[in-house]
Specification:
mainly alpha; 2% strand
């Protein structure tokens, strides 16, 4: 989900005879399960792919706070407000871990944010959909963060050391987020008929965008194969999407809700669920910047960055002052 449309610069996996001696040694280390560290030699395409993927992941964590932040003051109880605030705080922390991991590859955080604000860098397509009512906070936590866990647990074993280590803590916190979301949905489904209908409506609206989070189908994901050879990705988009469906359907049944997919059925031979076709036209339209909230999300993020400029300037001035005193 955090590598949606990430360009490796290579549309075909490089064969051994096409690699330099340095590239062969590099690939051998990856094949042996040895982590690549920032000061190690690496192909430029590997470095650029990591910068794009990690920064897109970081941007997603930061932008992902926006639909939830709108509901803090409208959460139904003080306890729900505190839980939602804790989750939003976690997302900010995840962004900081990931920007720090990207910086080890020789890029600055300011440049990464400038790319985001200019619309040249992307974030996960899921955060361009509106959160219309309190049930959406449940659906986001349950489906969006549930999908994130499916995507992120393999990243704990990815080939780049700083990224894999950052993901260990992120995954622990994401598991809390998923349980928080499911708890909201469970409370609504055990409430009044109107509350249960709210939960069903949220499921109807978030189900397909959640499946789109894993990126385009393997048949059209031309850069995935190289990322998998480098062990930046460990599983294909379609495999992760299938895991999401298989994991979530029993939870939907327990809630007493209906899956918004008339083609869904259990495949006894495969031991997995068959499900309908994702609307890839909608996915590409959102990725191109034409989703329901693309402009709103980016505008809000840019405004927040500009509003915080005085504080960043104060931190730099304080650091310079302390350095001058120490030098004196």
């Amino acid at each position: 989900m955090y590598a949606q449309m990430v360009d490796t610069g290579l549309t075909q996996v490089r064969k051994a005879e096409e690699m330099s001696p340095e590239e062969l040694a590099f690939q051998a280390r990856i094949d042996a399960g040895i982590k690549i560290e920032p000061k190690d030699w690496m192909p430029e395409a590997y470095r650029k792919t990591l910068v794009r993927q990690i920064s897109q992941h970081a941007h997603s964590e930061i932008v992902g706070q926006l639909p939830e932040g709108n509901w803090v003051t409208r959460a139904p109880t003080l306890q729900r407000k505190a839980i939602l605030l804790a989750k939003i705080q976690d997302e900010a922390g995840h962004g900081l871990y990931l920007y720090s991991a990207a910086e080890t590859l020789g890029v600055s955080r300011e440049d990464l944010l400038a790319e985001l604000h200019a619309g040249r860098a992307k974030y996960s397509s899921i955060f361009n959909y509106p959160a219309l009512n309190w049930a959406d906070m449940g659906a986001i936590g349950w489906l969006v963060d549930g999908s994130a866990i499916i995507n992120q647990i393999p990243l704990c074993r990815c080939s780049f050391g700083p990224y894999s280590r950052a993901m260990v803590r992120v995954c622990k916190e994401e598991s809390f987020h998923a349980r928080q979301g499911y708890d909201i949905m469970l409370a609504l489904c055990r409430g009044t008929p109107e509350q249960k209908q709210m939960a069903q409506d949220a499921l109807n609206r978030w189900w397909w965008p959640a499946l789109m989070m894993f990126g385009p189908s393997d048949a059209t994901s031309v850069h995935s194969a190289q990322s998998m050879q480098w062990r930046i990705k460990l599983f294909s988009n379609d495999e992760l999407r299938q895991r999401m469906v298989d994991q979530t359907i029993p939870q939907i049944e327990y809630l007493g809700l209906t899956v918004p997919d008339p083609d869904l059925k259990w495949n006894e031979e495969r031991g997995r669920y068959d499900f309908g076709q994702v609307d890839w036209n909608e996915f590409h339209n959102v990725v191109r910047g034409n989703g329901p909230c693309n402009r709103e999300r980016l505008s809000t993020r840019k405004q927040a960055y500009e509003d915080g400029a005085w504080f960043r300037d104060a931190l730099v001035a304080h650091a310079d002052k302390q350095a001058t005193r120490k030098a004196a």
